[in-house]
Structure formats: structure tokens, C-alpha cells
Amino acid sequence: MRYQISGKQIDIGEALQTHVRTEIDSVIAKYPGRPTDALVIFSKSAHEYCCESVVHLSTGLTVQAKGVATEIYSAFDQANEKMEKQLRRYKRRLKDHHKDRSQPVELSSAASYILASSTADEDTEPDSLNPMIIAEIETSIPSLSVGEAVMQMELAGAPLLVFRNDRQDTGVNIVYRRDDGNIGWIDPNATT
């Protein structure tokens, strides 16, 4: 497995890198999915350290976790515990997902844009209805079943996931976490 361990504006020592590799290996070894690479980024904000971990599995799924603590090792341990909890929760589904899928998840390219927020007062009307694009990023849209999409959204800790429904070939679908705690699914081609 490839590791990329780095720090934003802070130095990461060899002892911390060894600790990260050892702990991630021990967590991932318990669960199916053969990891391909791991990205761990440390940063510091005031007196707290933040650790963001992302592990890509060979099946195309991604596990993400974030930890915040006053010590750098504690921040990583917190993120690692969250990652282990996510993997433990989805262990059976990851096994089933691996059996059903003979090929890795197919990814389609798409453009993602970041738009400038409106700084005008709420009482005034905007000058233009065309928002200003401040960043353009290439992103990937996975081809998943609805169950796999919900699992991926939960593993990533994301509020929503855009995906192609590989079971029905209905184009782009969205699963999202509703305010009531349930999961919503938007299928644009479904008829009522």
C-alpha cells in the first residue's frame, strides 16, 4: 500500500510516520477491501492538531475520518478509531460488495465548480444572476448500486453522494442524509 503522510505548515517526524503506517495497517488488515493507498494530512489550528485520513480500497470505495486533539498523536488516534468504527460497521457489506463486483468501481469524469458566495445585503438585489466561479476541479462520479452508494456516503462521512446507478443505467442519481436522519435517494428517471 502506498502512503502519503504530510503536514500543512508543520514538520512530520519519522516516528509519527512509522506510527501512522503501523496503526493503519493493523486496522485495515482486519477488514476486506485490499487498500491501495492512504493519504494522511496533519495541520495545526491555534493549540489543536487536526488529522484527516483517507484510505482508498481496491473496490473503489473510500474511507475518510478526521480527528482533532491537543496532541498530534492523539489527533491521529482519534481519526484512526473513527475509521475502524466505520469499517467495523460495514464489514459484512464490504465482503458482500467484494463478492458481487468482479471489476473495480467504474469512474466517470466530471467538472466541479466552487462559486463565490454572495456578499451583498439580503435586501438588495444582485447585479447579475451569473455567479462568479472561483475554482474548477475535476471530480469522479462512481458507478454504484444504491446500497453501495449509501455505504460509500456513510464511509466518507459526506452529506450526499452523486453516482451513476449501475443497476438501472438511469444516469446520475443522488443519495443524501435527510434532516430526520433517514437517507433520501433522487432518481431523475423514475416515474410515479
Automatic annotation (TrEMBL):
It is found in: Cytoplasm. Residues 73-100 form a coiled coil. Residues 130-184 form the Sigma 54 modulation/S30EA ribosomal protein C-terminal domain. Keywords: Coiled coil, Cytoplasm, Translation regulation. It holds the Pfam family Ribosomal_S30AE. Its main location: cytoplasm. It comes from the Bacteria. One of its GO terms (biological process) is negative regulation of translational elongation. The keyword Cytoplasm applies. GO terms for molecular function: ribosomal small subunit binding. One of its GO terms (cellular component) is cytosolic small ribosomal subunit. InterPro entries: HPF/YfiA_ribosome-assoc, HPF_long/plastid, RHF-like, RHF/RaiA, Ribosom_S30AE_C, Ribosom_S30AE_C_sf. Associates exclusively with 100S ribosomes, which are dimers of 70S ribosomes. Belongs to the HPF/YfiA ribosome-associated protein family. Long HPF subfamily. HAMAP family: HPF. Required for dimerization of active 70S ribosomes into 100S ribosomes in stationary phase; 100S ribosomes are translationally inactive and sometimes present during exponential growth. This is Ribosome hibernation promoting factor. It comes from Tranquillimonas rosea. The lineage of its organism: Bacteria, Pseudomonadati, Pseudomonadota, Alphaproteobacteria, Rhodobacterales.
